[in-house]
Amino acid sequence: MKILVAVKRVVDYNIKVRIKPDGSDVDIDGVKMSVNPFDENAIEEALRLKEKGIATEVVAVSFGTAANQDVLRHALAMGADRAILVDSDAALQPLAVAKLLKSIASREQTDIVLLGKQAVDDDAGQTGQMLAALLDYPQATFASALAVNGNEIAVTREVDGGTETLALDLPAVITADLRLNEPRFVKLPNLMMARKKPIETISAAELGVDATPRLKLLKVSEPPARKAGIKVGSITELLEKLRTHEGVQL
Fold first, then answer.
1. b/e per residue, 122-154, with b = 16+ CB within 10 A?
2. 206-244 pLDDT, tens digit each
3. CB within 8 Å of 159: residues ≥ 6 apart
4. Fewer CB within 10 Å, N or C, the chain?
């Protein structure tokens, strides 16, 4: 069984992002970048399936410029067998990524495509669903547990008020939630060895995919500043403050 894992390069989740002065986008110059956290869960789950003897090969793929090699090498250091970079200078949106991922999945003849349920930079949460539609594969999103049995995979996901478990025939597309697992710590020797591993590079143009953006970013702005809090001595005072200062009708 071959598992394809999509890996996106995003601003490290520990970094507070800055908005460009003209509000045209987020300023990422000189900012630390890393693997999208949800994709890291997807990598970890693929590796665990391999360690259980269920999967035979884990292939990581990323879309973008040569800078994306760092997240692919992180995947290799975690234990992925191979890495593919689909080289593109364009600003790829979810539909374009889904189309490119479909090409790679078809080319690799993968049994499971695993990816994060969303990316922490755009929070779009669309690529997995689009990919499943393009491939005509069954899909399970927001996975918090997986169990493979023959040609079927059971996926548990959280829903309002509890969980539900779906049974999917393979091949399938699955998006990972943070609850799926705890990604392993990558040791320095593994990172050093990963630097020497080859990364297959494919031009996005070779795949014949129309990556034309469908969405236009109009403006990026900071959230409104929170007002300073106050302490009250009683419920009566709280109700008075809400009426007089906030205009709340109680």
1. eeebbbbbbbbebbebbbbbbbbbbebeeeebe
2. 898 888 888 888 999 888 888 888 888 999 999 988 888
3. none
4. C
Length of the chain: 250
- The CA distance from 125 to 118, in Å, is 4
Cα 173 to Cα 128: distance, rounded to the nearest angstrom: 7
Cβ burial of 195 (10 Å; 0-12, 13-18, 19+) is: exposed
The DSSP annotation for 155-182 comes to EEEEETTEEEEEEEESSEEEEE-GGG--
Q: Which of 78, 32, 49, 80 is nearest to 200 (CA)?
A: 80
- 5-9, 23-27, 223-227, 239-243: lowest mean pLDDT where? 223-227
Could you report the per-residue pLDDT of 137-183, keeping only the tens digit for each?
999 999 999 999 989 999 999 888 899 999 999 999 999 999 999 99
- From 118, 121, 146, 122, select the one nearest 130 (Cα to Cα): 118
The CA distance from 124 to 117, in Å, is 9
What percentage of the chain's residues is helix, strand, coil (to nearest 5)? 30, 30, 40
| pLDDT band with cut points at 50, 70 and 90 for residue 60 | very high
Q: DSSP assignment, residue 97?
A: H
Among candidate residues 155, 111, 105, the one with its CA nearest the CA of residue 134: 105
Rounded to two decimals, the pTM is 0.86
By C-alpha distance, which of 104, 122, 121 is closest to 113? 104
Tokens read off for 87? 């080289």
